[in-house]
Amino acid sequence: MSSKPRTVEAVRTEILSAIAEVRAAARLGRDEQRAHTADWLDGLFAGVSDRRGLREASAQGLTLYRGGMGSFRDVGYAAAGHAVDRLHAALRRGRSWFLRNS
Fold first, then answer.
1. pTM confidence score
2. Do 22 and 84 touch, CB atoms closer than 8 A?
3. Cα–Cα distance, 96 to 82 (Å, whole number)
4. Residue whose C-alpha is closest to residue 85's, from 75, 94, 95
5. Chain segment 9-51, per-residue pLDDT in tens
6. Per-residue b/e over 75-88, b at no fewer than 16 CB within 10 Å?
C-alpha cells in the first residue's frame, strides 16, 4: 500500500467503478432495487470535484449500509455481495480527510 495521499478524482473514479459493479450484479441477479440504488448513487457523485463534495456524497452513500435484514447489505448471491462490499470500502475511502484535490 502506498503512503502517497490519494486524489479526489482517483477515489471518485474508484467509487464510480464500484457503483458500475453493483449495477452489473443487480442486472445479473434481476435485482431492480439495487439497480435503482446504483442510479441514485451515480447522481450523488455527478459533478463532485473536491474533497468536501466527495466526503458529503460518500456519507450519503454510506447510509445504505444501515439496517439489518432486507438492507442494502443483505444480499443473496456472491456477485452482489462482492460488489456491495467493494462499494462500501470505496465509500469509506471517500470520507477521508487526507484526500488531495488534485
1. 0.89
2. yes
3. 22
4. 75
5. 999 999 999 999 999 999 999 989 889 999 999 999 999 999 9
6. beeebbeebbebbb
